[in-house]
Amino acid sequence: MSDYFGAVTLDAAKKQLRVDYADEDELIVTYIMAATAQCEQICGREIVKRSDENALCDSVDDVPEAVRTWVLLTVTDLYEHRGASESSIATGRRFYDHLLDGYRIF
Known about the structure:
Layout: H1 10-17, H2 25-43, H3 65-80
Helix pairs in contact: 1-3, 2-3
């Protein structure tokens, strides 16, 4: 995954989800990328630097814990509630969205 720019690793997400098999790796990576994209939209900048001078950090290892936690909780929400109508993502602000407040660019 040389072009992988998610804010968390697949291993971290699988640990969060308590998944120890590879059958759903592709799905989990999709959720990581979706959560990272949403995080970047909220923060107004890239999380892991690709081209943005205002990126939050240079590598996935440097992602602040609050941002990492937000992404992992979003991945969990997407994984556990695969139907958008069931997910808190579809209903507005989640209880953990405030974790990104200190990283937003206005």
